[in-house]
């Protein structure tokens, strides 16, 4: 691969790739954009580590309405990049339609070989990562851009089916695997069991067995963070006792309000089709704003999966 070669990937979804990788290379790095739409949506807001999708929370970028707007982060040196994750702005998801991701060692918008690169696939080298939106009268909004090296593992819970022991109002189990970490229950993106239940639980069926390396749990942010204290993450292939008898991966001592914590099973990984959040005890209420499961299919090497 020539060091000056650029690779391009079309952005087809609001969230391009949600991956569990070693390190976000873009975090706190120098970012610039083609224009500033106001004094709030500056380029560095997309590398501040905050995925909040609400522009009013001051964590998203904004360009003027212009032809071919762009945003770019300088990683500081050349890295082997495995994946890019983009968080779009809530309410204006279509603004990213047709955007492209460019990776290379030059800030020049040229594509000498006309190659297109789709994530995740294999790794490519580059220092600069650019989000480019071709066309006239375009506005570029980005709430977070994350750049990862290593081998990407997907959040397989996104394609699963979720259920729970009971449901309060419209706070169905599926709300915890909708790809949003929005932690305010009133916004409608969190699951919720009936109040004061005995041993409430939530479960995602991954549809097949996976080798699971990490589970990320986002707690409710507007109140009641302590409700999740003592919950257990259980993983396995059995539905005995609704899956709650499967081996325990980890226990949740406490997750601060609105925060996302990562749990890794003892021994590094566990195999299973079902991932349960089980909250033992009487008069318990289980609320989950997002559950992410990072894994590769069981019985296949990681290199086969990526």
From TrEMBL:
Keywords, comma-separated and alphabetical: Calcium, Disulfide bond, Lectin, Metal-binding, Secreted
Keyword presence, Transcription: no
Biological processes per GO annotation: regulation of cellular defense response; regulation of complement activation, lectin pathway
GO molecular function: fucose binding; metal ion binding
Leader sequence segment: none
SUPFAM superfamilies in the cross-refs: Galactose-binding domain-like
Record keyword Calcium present: yes
GO CC term, one of those recorded: extracellular region
Complex formation: Homotrimer.
Family label: Belongs to the fucolectin family.
Purpose: Acts as a defensive agent. Recognizes blood group fucosylated oligosaccharides including A, B, H and Lewis B-type antigens. Does not recognize Lewis A antigen and has low affinity for monovalent haptens.
Name under which the protein is recorded: Fucolectin tachylectin-4 pentraxin-1 domain-containing protein
Organism: Haplochromis burtoni (Burton's mouthbrooder)
Lineage: Eukaryota, Metazoa, Chordata, Craniata, Vertebrata
